[in-house]
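TA notes. Do not distribute before section.
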Amino acid sequence: MSVQLWTWIIVALTFSLYIGIAIWSRAGSTKEFYVAGGGVSPLANGLATAADWMSAASFMGMAGIIAFAGYDGSVYLMGWTGGYVLLALLLAPYLRKFGKFTVPDFIGERYYSKTARVVAVVCAIIVSFTYVAGQMRGVGIVFSRFLEVEINTGVIIGMIIVLFYAVLGGMKGITYTQVAQYCVLIFAFMVPAIFISIQMTGNPVPQLGFGSSLTDGSGMYLLDKLDGLSTELGFTEYTNGSKSLIDVFAITFALMVGTAGLPHVIVRFFTVKRVKDARKSAGLALLFIAILYTTAPAVAVFARTNLIETVSNKEYANMPEWFKKWETTGLIAFDDKNENGTIQYVGDAEKNELTVNRDIMVLANPEIANLPAWVIALVAAGGLAAALSTAAGLLLVISSAVSHDLIKKVINPELSEKGELVAARISAVGAVVIAGYFGINPPGFVAAVVALAFGLAAASFFPAIILGIFYKKMNSKGAIAGMIVGITLMLFYMLKYKLQLFGGGTQEDWWFGISPEGFGTIAMIVNFVVSLVVNAFTEEPPQEVQDIVEDIRIPSGAGDAVSH
């Protein structure tokens, strides 16, 4: 059977499974819509959290960025993994004990202020829309290649699917759908990685394979071969980095603390019964995440090596079918500058004739390696599972921020539960439409867009959450001022250097030599400073708020969540 037919079959089966689960577990109350009724088991929550966390950026973008950036791409691996540990150990149990549905809900109650709640809602919406743009783009890329439709059409198909189970099932539907999606995405990521590892090195464990010697009789190590191929073609040596130390640190730290401020991941810890279960599910999720994250560098090396060997200095007329198929999507392009019919893939931008979108590397890898059609189709289903699971979680954050934190808590406190559920579903529809627009008009490739969302979360939420938990004298005025200044600064820098607004600028103009992906670290520090300075010159929070903060840090009786 052809790749396209296999893709239709596997995608149809997995989508039927997701939709079936959404119908079976549809939400009947606001508690089920927001936090799945608070009765999810640690194992199911661990699987769902892993799927929520491993977006299109993890599945497609991370290995893609490492394939092209080499050593420099490792900042994404370190930042995203380290960030999850930070979230699981430092914040999740305390937030769970506080007992609020959403991050704006925590900030609104902890800082005893409607203004703080509204600012948090705006920040949550900005962060989530930036993040979801990358997911919708990922969906469009998968559909455009494997169902052979335009990227924009692919984004629209993805919107319809997400809309169905996010609006119908809420968090309850999304949780159990994400359990299935984790199983699909991890199987889809590991199977081709194992196949190619055996093919290239004879080692069935990809994590060991990319550090092994090749089976071609040369006795050469795979990484040595890739270094040689890269330098021969004028690219930088794969295992050497070119980023400045300060930028590596800034990106890694922004991704770490951004993780700890991501509303769609934090809300997962409210879906279990007890604080103890929140800790268990965090540990399990880390284990499930590590399977993919430790494999991504190997996939990047396999894909980059295979790509160079397949296309460099080869005749365009003899290119395999996968090349022509990807060409129709516009994500790989050959410009025959010297008109000799041979692809010149080199590091010199003026001479280079091949443009490759880094987001296709994981998806194209099985095709480049000439793996069976069903494996290629499986990767397509995995990419969709990764993108859709995270998109659904993000859309739920947006809809709950609007319906629960804005409409119910600020605009109309008398709103009935049924009215709130209707508002949540209408908000989700609006969020999907806007997310689709950003998917069609993204500000960069998938991993970079997602990295910017982490920067925004670091700049806005992280200081407010940390100070809210660990500094009982932190008041509302300080937190509000910090969030506004932090996210405004990050947005300005992002729009200036990514979208070339406000006069634009090049890499030479970056402040302190820090890229937009790493600037969240600077904006976060500014947030902390502004928060503490304003706090020092304004009145202390009420005593009852200070007592609540004391209480959520007490481990005794931590078996049960305390709701205030």
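Switch to the second chain here.
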Amino acid sequence: MIILGINAYHADSSAAILKDGVLIAASEEERFTRVKHWAGFPEKAIQFCLDELGITLDQVDHIAIGRDPKAKLDKKMLYLLKNPQGGVKTVLNRLSNNKKVASLEQEFSRMSGVDADKIKPKIHQVEHHRSHLASAFFASPFDEAALLSIDGSGDFTTTMIGRGKGNKIEVIDSVDFPVSVGTFYTSFTQFLGFPHYGDEYKVMGLAPYGEPKYVDKLRDVIKFTDNGLFDWNPKYFKSAKDVVVTYGDDHIPVVGTLFTSYMEEQFGPARKKEDELTQYHKDIAASVQRFTEELIFHIVNHLQKRTGLKNLCVAGGVAQNSVANGKILANSGFEELYIPSAGHDAGISMGAAYYVYNQTLDMPRAKPIYSAYTGSKFSNEQIEEFLKSRNISYKRLADAELYDYVSDKLVNAGVIGWFQGRAEFGPRALGGRSILADPRRTDAKDLLNAKIKRRESFRPFAPSILKEYVPEYFERTENVPFMEKVFPIKKEKYKEIPAVTHVDGTGRLQSVDKEVSPRYYGLIDAFRQKTGVPILLNTSFNENEPIVNTPAEALDCFLRTRMDMLVLENCVVER
């Protein structure tokens, strides 16, 4: 049985494909369009998924759309009645987008030549947050778990809690639009002078430079409720007459200003993008991050008491807050936590497909997913043919020689573009499409920003560590396959790995498993044998663009930056 899942006409559009419950391929459309957070119909990602199975669209049994325009229709209408002036623009905008979702069979027909009438019966609409829950639970190792989906909004819901058992998900409760943790965090992201869609991670990176002095003041913005959820003070947020997210003909999501003048009255004037980042701004960032963590702990602790379960699965945009994720188990009654590699909206395609397979069709669960490598792949022969066509000099090395050669370059201050195997599904580079450096260097961060990244100095770089060495370097020991959690680094290790130790003594680690990532493991282990350090500094292979997807994109990034070496599978290009 073949199920195609998509996230369409929504930020981070994507496609994923299952065969008999096994995830075969998944990718964001932005990897092909080269436009960050691209939000149209994911035609190229769909075609990629079909090609990976060697099939055509008419051979797909079911198509799962991670969006259900009919979800909470009664609450949408009630909201419109309560907000007759302010709500019309928002509802009309959403209905316009819903029409695109409702007529997807026409898009499938256009790209495939298959009659739309044959496609329509195969389509299943799966609510946004149910798709998120499914992406986490059905991919997890747990037979039973409490579930949390938390983000900006989707299908008129902003937070959903539930329970998963076997191949079924039960929704327990939810928070309705517009009240939203995601909107709260984005509002303060904008307030701090970071205006673009997806800039929230900058606030998370800035927070350790401040003190959480204003947490109590934020209690007037968001209110914790006795049912384990939350409400907010609408005075701080613009009404629905200002559309929250719009998608133009270029399919780029644009977020209007979310906060009101009342927020500026209470917290001072908003920072403009070009303004200096003052200590006050850093303290606000620290306070917003700390308050968000407290809110998440409030939700999960109530959820744990309500379900009595020990396992937790989390997804949604707020689930990309790796600092909060790293603290959940220490601040709740849960003992195990699973977060998928694509916890953000791209993961909806995978989640919708699993929801249809397990929940709707009542099929048994497949094995848990610990690998994010579901994207594009190129053979050495394809790479050599490409390099020759561009007249690029290279050498091809066998694996053992490759690890030795590249690790030597890393030891000698080299910055490496590492392009191996399948691309990762999700926002994190995990050794498939990574830029690597020596974590022992005190100047590595400045070196990377000068040579390639040109990003804000307060943003940290991450450590990829061999799985069995995590207890030696970190205060907490958990499996972190997708770089989805931040943990404190042991104090005695700060000086050993300064390049990946953030200002607050933490690191957003990836625990590298030999079975999951054999080639990446081999390189890190070669570095360990030479230095005694089982860690590499890892950042995404890109330069202000989506992560590179092809050898051509990798080479272009290498040529326009000051990277020292490019490794495409077994082919090495040097300056």
